Amino acid sequence: MTRNRIRPSVGFLTPFTKMQVLIALFALAALVWLVPMIQHGRLMLVAMAVLGVGTVLGPAFFAVDGPIQISLDRVLWGAMFALAAIGWRMGNVRLPKLNRLDWMVVGVVGWFFIRAAMGGAVPDGSSPVARWLFYIAMPAGMYLIARLVTVQQQDIQIMMIGMVGLGLYLAVTAVFEVYGVHGLVFPRYIVDGEVWEFFGRGRGPLMNPSGNGILISIALVAAALGFVYAGRRGKLVYAVIVTVLMVGLYATLTRSAWMGGIAAIGLVAMLYSPRWVRVLGLAMVVLFGGAFVMGLKDQLVQMKRDKNLTAADAQKSMALRPLLAIVAWEMFKDRPIAGHGFGHYFAHNDPYHSQRGYDLPLEIARPYNQHNVVLSVLVDTGLVGASLFVGWLVSLMGVGWRLVREANRKPEVRCTGVMLLGTMIAYLINGMFQDVLIIPMVHMFLFYIAGVAVTVRECEMVIKVPENAKSPALRGAAANGYVSAQVPASS
């Protein structure tokens, strides 16, 4: 559902808006400090900055409206590509040889653009091409940046630490939202009661509890991996961090977010625990999980979450999903190959809510978007778009699993695979109940982590080489400071 957010006006600035402007100017001035990063080939750090700024200081915080809305993260995203071009000219950035997954991303970006541009006008006057730009093209740009760089071990460590830090911020903010400690919430628009949707839940700076839950789930995976590889004192620290993240995940008050987070951290437990622990843990989850769900089924269904909605409204939201699925099926049957157009759902869905063949109140689902990401893609882009998109997701899961299971892998390489799989699990579980494609920043994280994993899979990770290395091959590579992870450890 579309939300109207307050934007800074030209003629009058409130004190809070003045603070936003000052922060925006300071952030723009800080772009100068990115130049040394590119001189040393540190595009990975710039990409992490894009993710952090886009999450906390995105368009809802400060934006200049125009033909294309400009915000801090989008300026930084453009600067990242300018720096990449400079790095390419300097020889610090190389163009990768495209593999199968890269071509699938090209196909998704291209087909979604065609279906956005050729679908005609939409009732609310929004631009489908702008939706494609912000939710498909820009995330694909993050994937491209991750494919351009040579990944170092410390990059993976920095990525995981950055995800944990961002997740802690989101978790603590979500707790403050739920318990009404609004004075400690930043940015302040998060607790703006006039934006009523999801108000009272831990919706975070993305203004969406499901999206907030996905990012916290990614942080949970990173923190759980930190716990696995940390020493005794480090394990205590990471145990506290995991607890805070779990509390923040609960504060989203969103069932799909809970399931995604639990499944993601369960993945880490499954991969790093002895077999008998995994079997015992699975049995306990099935036993106690089944008892919990059966005992609290009514409470979970009727749980009051938003401050402006009743428990009955929350229960009604679950009844919408099968109705939306029926509408999606009928729309798909009419245009199965190319779909109705990316971002054109509301331009074509109206007649399908008036069908009487199902003897169901399809009309009540008329104002709502699809609540399933695969059905949304299928309706908008047809079998062509859905095949490309789903095929890419399935292929990514294969990449992650191979990084995790292949022998003689360095911990950072295996962690990259686990991070990708955990992200995919959180994304897909939430995507079963929400159109996560149109939640801000979610695809930016997904495409970036996917690009890093594909690059690592292509043996582009580099490791520090000691100057006194015995191997002539390693000594030669040490002259440049690094050697490809493709070199056997026994060299």
What can you see in these coordinates?
One of its GO terms (molecular function) is ligase activity. The protein has 491 residues and is mainly α. It has three domains: 1-95, no CATH class; 102-148 and 310-460, no CATH class; 152-279, no CATH class. It contains 18 helices and four strands. It has helices at 15-29, 35-39, 43-56, 72-90, 100-117, 128-148, 153-178, 209-229, 232-251, 255-272, 275-295, 297-301, 311-334, 345-348, 373-405, 411-431, 442-457, 472-478, and strands spanning 63-64, 70-71, 462-464, 482-484. Strands 1-2 form a two-stranded antiparallel ribbon. Strands 3-4 form a two-stranded antiparallel sheet. A hairpin with a 5-residue loop joins strand 1 (63-64) and strand 2. The longest helix is centred in the last third of the chain and has 33 residues, at 373-405. The radius of gyration is 23 Å and the shape is globular.
In short:
The chain is mainly alpha-helical. The chain has helices at 15-29, 35-39, 43-56, 72-90, 100-117, 128-148, 153-178, 209-229, 232-251, 255-272, 275-295, 297-301, 311-334, 345-348, 373-405, 411-431, 442-457, 472-478, and strands spanning 63-64, 70-71, 462-464, 482-484. It has 3 domains: 1-95, no CATH class; 102-148 and 310-460, no CATH class; 152-279, no CATH class.
